[in-house]
């Protein structure tokens, strides 16, 4: 699997307040896999043990899209962290 596109929206404190988001939410993201499959509404969060990814859920809170192994979860997390850091650097310039 190759992540071929990453779209990320980073939240600042003011935007989090406006949207009623928890302060742990760093960004929302969408991923495209192999130019063929898109996943939207992925959240990048920070917690006591470090950053983590929250995948989309249905209305009753059950995951509808998620990695089935740790390697894929790490690939997604590392890709989103890199995009977050790159975008954050752009905003600082």
Produce a short descriptive summary.
Helices cover 32% and strands 35% of the residues. The protein has 93 residues and is of the alpha+beta class. The radius of gyration is 13 Å and the shape is globular.
Could you explain how this protein is built, in words?
A hairpin with a 2-residue loop joins strand 3 and strand 4. The mean pLDDT is 90. The radius of gyration is 13 Å and the shape is globular. The protein has one domain: Arylsulfatase, C-terminal domain (2-Layer Sandwich). The protein is built from two helices and four strands, in the order βαβββα. 32% of the residues lie in helices and 35% in strands. A four-stranded antiparallel beta sheet has the order 1-2-3-4, covered by helices on one side.
């Amino acid at each position: 699997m190759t992540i071929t596109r990453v779209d990320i929206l980073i939240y600042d404190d003011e935007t989090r307040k406006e949207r009623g988001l928890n302060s742990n939410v760093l960004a929302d993201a969408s991923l495209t896999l192999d130019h063929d499959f898109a996943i939207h509404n992925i959240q990048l969060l920070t917690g006591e043990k470090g950053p983590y990814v929250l995948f989309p859920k249905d209305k009753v809170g059950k995951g509808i899209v998620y990695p089935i192994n740790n390697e894929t979860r790490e690939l997604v997390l590392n890709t989103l962290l890199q995009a977050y850091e790159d975008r954050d650097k752009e905003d600082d310039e």
